[in-house]
Amino acid sequence: MFEELSNRFDAIFKKLRGRGKLTEENVSEAVRDVKRALLEADVNYRAVKKFSATVQEKALGSQVLQSITPGQQFVKLVHDELTALMGGSARPIKLHTNRLNVLVVAGLQGSGKTTACAKMALYFRKQGHRPMMVACDTYRAAAIDQLQTLGKSLGVPVYADKSAKPVDITRAAIKQAQAEDVSLLIIDTAGRLHVDEEMMAELKEICLISKPDEIFFVADAMTGQDAVNVAEQFYKEISFTGVILTKLDGDARGGAALSILDVTGVPVQFVGVGEKPDAFEVFHPERMVSRILGMGDIVSLVERAQETVDVENSRKLEKKIRKNSFTLQDFLDQLRQIKKMGPLSDLLAMIPGVGGYLKDAEVDNGALNKIEAIICSMSFLEREKPQLIDGSRKRRIATGSGTTVQDVNRLLKQFDSMKMMMKRMNKIAGKRGQAAAFRSLSPF
Ligand SMILES: Nc1nc2c(ncn2[C@@H]2O[C@H](COP(=O)(O)OP(=O)(O)O)[C@@H](O)[C@H]2O)c(=O)[nH]1
Ligand SMILES: [Mg+2]
């Protein structure tokens, strides 16, 4: 699910990175691309319109275009706004510990209500609750059997009465729950294929009697825009407090279901990712968006860089590289800035695609310390003019830094080839914009 959307975003961001410099035009173009991708993922038109207007406005604002890493900033902007579109940060469900909690589960037939009841029973039992499920879908005998079978397999009690009305069942179930030290009542209700008055009236009455702490609307991610309309109708009648999005394991585009938030203001709380009772997750908008955008933890990376990288310094550095006057002292400053961001292995692990490879590979944070020690043992003049460093100076530096002459040689060689590369970049840059060339040198 969301794979197609993910691929689309990947292409959009690649195109943007290829630009080097961001202008109003290519930002507008990228926003248009993002808009199209969301619409194709079946996200509600109104929600998309609002989303792209915000992104466009913020992207053209000074924070993005004038930052040192406009491409990444744009990605982060899309990430943040998409997260907001999906409900912002997850609101944890807090159940009472000193009295009976009641959850009502509502939705159309086949959306996954009964399955969701069992999933929640399992989920909350793991948190120490003592759940009981209530079979209020009395229209089909099979529905009661289904809940009872699920209850049996999970060891969760089920209150059922095939000959009673849902409203009376609810009353009786509450009484029994109170008598039996149950802390959580999960009421499974009947659904029709379409919203109908009788069903709504019954549902409302169940809610009136049971005074639920939460009412969950179950939406099938596979049903497209229709899910949005149905949600709107349910919301008008019962003002549900949370959404459970089911069948996210399928290959639905899923965007429609996410638009439920836009229409009702109620966020997705849980997602169903399979038929089994444990195929159930708390919905974290942020994690979902990162997954869709395929960006590992690039957002935290950008945030950390923003915290630690001094923009003014970076500009000075850019100038030095351009004039080919980059020295070992600059190298040391740069190194320290990178070190400020945290252990190298942490940083690398946050880069999309790199994390996986890192599991086995050792990243030698010690190598950075060694380089730092060597440069620190050089005099200021040596840092500015490394060509002065002859054999005896090398020995002095090695002793001073607790390294070997080979280590010093290696660093000088690395620095040499780095300068060569910068020179080459400058040549290319002359043709297609120096800032772009610089950016491709920088780790961000
Ligand atoms: N793949 C998948 N199937 C699900 C999920 N949730 C429910 N189902 C299936 O959808 C069908 C209808 O579910 P059910 O709980 O009976 O829906 P209800 O009519 O709303 O009570 C059943 O075959 C379930 O196994 C899910 O998250 N993933
Ligand atoms: Mg059912």
Describe the structure.
This protein is α/β, with parallel strands linked by helices and 444 residues long. The chain has 3 domains: 3-85, SRP54, nucleotide-binding domain (Four Helix Bundle (Hemerythrin (Met), subunit A)); 101-289, P-loop containing nucleotide triphosphate hydrolases (Rossmann fold, 3-Layer(aba) Sandwich), CATH 3.40.50; 298-441, Signal recognition particle, SRP54 subunit, M-domain (434 Repressor (Amino-terminal Domain)). 61% of the residues lie in helices and 9% in strands. It contains 23 helices and 8 strands. It has helices spanning 3-19, 24-40, 45-60, 62-65, 70-85, 113-126, 141-154, 166-179, 197-210, 225-238, 255-258, 260-264, 285-293, 298-308, 311-322, 328-340, 344-350, 354-358, 365-376, 380-384, 391-401, 405-432, 434-441; strands at 101-107, 131-135, 158-159, 184-188, 214-220, 242-246, 268-272, 280-282. It has an 8-stranded mixed sheet, sandwiched between helices. β7 (268-272) and β8 (280-282) form a beta hairpin. α5 crosses α13 and α21 (391-401) crosses α22. Residues 355-361 and 432-444 have low confidence and may be disordered. The structure holds guanosine-5'-diphosphate (GDP) and magnesium ion.
What percent of residues are in strands?
A: 5-15%
State the share of residues found in helices, binned by percent.
55-70%
CATH topology of the largest domain: Rossmann fold
Distinct compounds present: guanosine-5'-diphosphate, magnesium ion
Number of domains: 3
What coarse outline follows from CA principal-axis ratios?
elongated
Report the biggest beta sheet as strand number plus sense, adding barrel if it closes: 8 strands, mixed
pLDDT below 50 for ≥5 consecutive residues: which ranges?
A: 355-361, 432-444
Mean pLDDT: 82
Q: What would you call the quaternary organization?
A: single chain
Q: From the 3D coordinates, which CATH architecture of the largest domain would you assign? A: 3-Layer(aba) Sandwich
Number of strands: 8
Name given to the CATH homologous superfamily of the largest domain: P-loop containing nucleotide triphosphate hydrolases
Sequence of strands across the biggest β-sheet: 3-2-4-1-5-6-7-8
Our Rg estimate from Cα atoms comes to 30 Å
Q: Distance between the terminal alpha carbons, to the nearest Å? A: 29 Å
Please identify the top-level CATH class of the largest domain.
Alpha Beta
Count of separate DSSP helical elements: 23
Structural class: alpha/beta
